[in-house]
Amino acid sequence: MIAHVKGTVAALTVTAAVVEVGGVGLQVLCTPRTLAELRLGQPATLFTSMVVREDSLTVYGFAEADERDMFELVQTASGVGPKVAQAMLAVLDPERLRQAIGAGEVSTLTSVPGIGRKGAERIILELKDRVGVVAGAAAGSAVSGAAWRSQVHDALTGLGWSAKDADAAIETTAAQLPDGTDPDVSTILRDALRSLAKAR
User: Fold this and answer.
1) Which domains does the chain have, with CATH numbers?
2) Span 69-73, mean pLDDT?
3) CA distances (Å), 111 to each of 87, 120, 187, in order?
């Protein structure tokens, strides 16, 4: 079991980072939130979970141990594999995910790609008593006003996109937001990355 990796970020893509550890480049699949914190050529520490299959060995990385722990916990629910677990943490931060499961928020869980109503109900049933104490009614990572634009822009340019491409993706994503909403930065970043991927 690889609990964490520490090394220099050698490459970044839309879905993964390559961290050089002891002369070996280790590909680590990451959520947009984690990728946004990494910088090419800079040292990084990622908390990891290794998923072993008959034909593959995949390492998933997270900026915080809490994210990694939630990634592993949700996979103990029936029908939840690593891809769905990663999608859950791409859409919801660990505390918000705990709150959604603990409070039985089916609609919140179904906002995650790959999770339908029955799947959400099953996750809640199986994990409600195992997610731990939920601290208050967290509101995710919504940012008021236009502050999210600079955060998303910095994250996209940090992933290697040009400032021009980043601005275009932000405008495309912003045009789809309902008027008067305070967007969640991680959700906006995910949508912007999707927009850039389609444009390639």
Assistant:
1) 4-62 (2.40.50.140), 66-127 (1.10.150.20), 147-199 (1.10.8.10)
2) 94
3) 10, 10, 11
